[in-house]
Amino acid sequence: MARVDYVNDPNAPKANSLVPSVTAVARNGAGEVLLIHKTDNDLWALPGGGVDLGESAPDAAVRETKEETGFDVEVTGIVGTYTDPRHVMAYDDGEVRQQFSICFRARILGGQLRTSSESKEVAFVAPDRLHELNIHPSMRMRIERGLDDQAEPYVG
Fold first, then answer.
1. How far apart are CA 37 and CA 132, in angstroms?
2. Domain ranges of the chain
3. Hey, how many other C-beta atoms are within 10 angstroms of the C-beta on 121?
4. Are 134 and 46 in contact (CB under 8 A)?
5. Going by CATH, does the domain composed of 3-146 fall within 3.90.79.10?
6. Low-confidence residues in the chain, pLDDT < 50
């Protein structure tokens, strides 16, 4: 399913759903961040997705990272909350979702790099190469904050 992201766009469609979601900032031993090249919007992003009923947000981050990248992770902290109602995602099925995401820090425990139906590429990217990738501004903010290792989470 294709999607278009809108941020601070007065012409954006009105949201008709709110789905709690998660992302995870996980780094390898070289300090590179684990990213996926998404199939739905052709952007690079942190692994993540919706929280399922009966699942905690940290468990969703672990599950989504495994599903999208092949890596097992352990959540170690919170990068921040991202709930800007001026950021909506319009899907081709008519859903227009208001952003509601919790971004976690995670430690890689094991696994093997692989793609999924949601990730056409999976890569570890050096922080000084992030500017070369097409990353949505909201996602870039999470990545940068996650790499800063700030003690206080972002609340916004």
1. 13
2. 3-146
3. 12
4. no
5. yes
6. none
What's the residue count for the chain? Answer: 156
CA angle 98, 103, 104 (to 5 degrees): 155
Q: How do strand 71-82 and strand 48-50 relate by DSSP bridges?
A: unpaired
- Residues 31 and 62: their CA atoms lie apart, in Å, by 19
Output the pLDDT for position 149. Answer: 75
Q: What are phi and psi of 88, to 5 degrees?
A: -125, 155
- Tell me the pLDDT tens digit for each residue of 29-67: 999 999 999 998 899 999 999 999 999 999 999 999 999
Going by DSSP bridges, is the β-strand pair 21-27/101-111 parallel, antiparallel, or unpaired? parallel
Structure tokens at 116: 């999924």
Alpha carbons within 13 A on the beta-carbon side of 38:
22
User: Tell me, what's the pLDDT at 48?
Assistant: 97
Torsion sign, CA atoms 50, 88, 119, 103:
negative
Give residue 15's Cα distance to chain centre.
19
